[in-house]
Amino acid sequence: MIRKIKILLIALIVLTLNQSSTPVKTAAPSGPNIILIFMDDMGYGDLSCYGALDINTPNIDRLASEGIRFTNFLSAQAVCSASRAAILTGCYPNRVGISGALFPASPIGLAKEEMTIADLLKQKNYATGIFGKWHLGDAQEFLPLNQGFDEYLGIPYSNDMWPVNYDGLPAKTGTNKYRFPPLPLIRNSAPVDTVRTLEDQALLTSRLTDEAISFIRRNKKKSFFAYIPHPMPHVPINASAAFRGKSKQGLYGDMIQEVDHNVGRIMDALKKEGLEKNTLVIFTSDNGPWLNFGNHAGNTAGLREGKGTSFEGGQRVPCIMKWKGTIPGGLVSNQLASTIDLLPTIAKLAGAPLPEKKIDGLDLGEILKGDLLASPRKNFLYYYRKNSLEAVRRDNWKLVFQHPSRSYLDQAPGVNGFPGAAPENVMMNEALYDLRRDPGERYDVQAYFPEIVKELKAIADQAREDLGDDLQKKEGSNKRQPGKLTK
C-alpha cells in the first residue's frame, strides 16, 4: 500500500513539473488582422507602380511587388460620403441612402442599422479603430463609435470644410467657406483639437499614422481592424517640412511621398511586432482626382474625366493588397473588382457571417489566392448624384446613358490650390465603349455591337427595378433610408 502511494506521489510531482515547464498558449486570433488605407482623391496614375512620373512611392510599390496590384478596380461612386458608405457596407451607396458629400451639421448620416466592416468584425472579437476622415454624418449619433468602432481619431468631414480660403487666409465674409465651423479633430466622441491652418493640415498624415501604429501595438495579441482614411490628397494639400521640395512634382508630389513614407512606417511596425504573416493590408482610394485643381490634383493615367463623374477617371482607382505568405507576390489582376467587394471578402477571411440585409459586394478570395482567371464580378453599376444610373458595365463593355455631368474637358485648371472651372451640367450622349481597346472612353461603338447594347440595357433595367433611377424617374424596390437625426 505504501509503495503504491509513493508511486502516485512521484507521478503527480512529474506531472506538475511538466505542466509548469510548458509555455501557456494563448488563443489564436480568430482571423487575420485587417489594415485598410483609404486615400481621398488619389488618381489611378499617382503611384510609381501605376506609372506616375517624378513621384517616388517605394513603400507602396513594395506592397505591390510582395502582393497583388489591381488594374481594373472601381470606387462605388466618385464622391466622398457615397464612396465611404460603400466601402464600409459592401453596398452601392444609393442602396443605403447616402449620396454626394455630407456637409457639417448634416441632418442625415449612415444608418445605425447598416452593418459596417467594423460591426461585422466585432462579432469575431476584433479590436476596431478608425484614424482619419469619417464623412458619414458629424452628429454624435452618426460618429464611428456608433458604427462598430472602438476608437476614433480624425476629422468628421472633408478637410476643405473649414472657414479658411485656398491660400490659407481666413475666408471672406459672405462666402460659402465663411459659413463653415472650425474644423475639429475628434477623439472618440469629442473634439480634442482644431485644424486651423495649412500648417496644421501638414501634420495630419503623420499624426494619424502615429495613432494607427499605437492601435496596432496595443492590440497585437488579438485580431484587429485598422481603418485609415487619410484626408488627403483632397485639397487643401500640404506636406510636413521634412518632405517639402523632395519630389519633382511640387507640393502634390511631396505630399504623396509623405503618405508613402507613412505607409512604410506601418509596414515596419507590423514587421517589428511579428504581425506580417497574419495581416492583410489593403491600399486604395475613394475616387479619382479633382482635376480642376491643376497642380494640386492627381493624375488619371489617361482615363477620361475625374472626380464627380461616372467615367473611368472618376471611378477607376489604384488598389493593392498584401498578406505575406498568403497572397503570392508580384501578382497583377486585370479582373473587374470594386470597393464594395471588400466587406464580403473580409467576412469570409474572418469567418464572420454576412449582413442579413442585402449587399452588392462579392468575395474576391479566389483572386487573392492567386487564381488570376477567377472573375467573381461580371457587372457594375455606375450610379451618381442622388440616384442616377449613368452607366452600366459587363466585363470590359461599358454603356454610358445620356446624362448631365461634370466635365473637366477643355477647361483650364487652377494652380497652387485654387480651382479652375468644372461645369456641372454638360450633357453626355449615350455611347458604348470597349474598355479593353479604349480605356479613355473616346470611341462610341454602339453601331457595331447592337447585341451588346441590348444585353447592357437589360442589366440596367434590372438595376432600375432594384435601386431605381432618377434619370428615368423610377423609384426601385430595395433602397434603404439613411440615418436621420432623432433630436
From TrEMBL:
Q: Which residues form the Sulfatase N-terminal domain?
A: 32-352
Q: Which CDD domains match?
A: GALNS_like
Where is composition skewed (Basic and acidic residues) in this entry? 467-478
Q: Which GO terms describe its molecular function?
A: arylsulfatase activity
Q: Where is the signal peptide?
A: 1-26
What SUPFAM superfamilies does its record include? Alkaline phosphatase-like
Location of the region described as Disordered in the Swiss-Prot/TrEMBL record: 467-487
For this UniProt record, the keywords arranged alphabetically read as follows: Hydrolase, Signal
PANTHER family listed in its UniProt record: ARYLSULFATASE FAMILY MEMBER, ENDO-4-O-SULFATASE
Indicate the family of this protein.
Answer: Belongs to the sulfatase family.
Q: What is this protein's record name?
A: Arylsulfatase
Question: What organism, scientifically named, is this protein from?
Answer: Daejeonella rubra
Q: What is the lineage of its organism?
A: Bacteria, Pseudomonadati, Bacteroidota, Sphingobacteriia, Sphingobacteriales
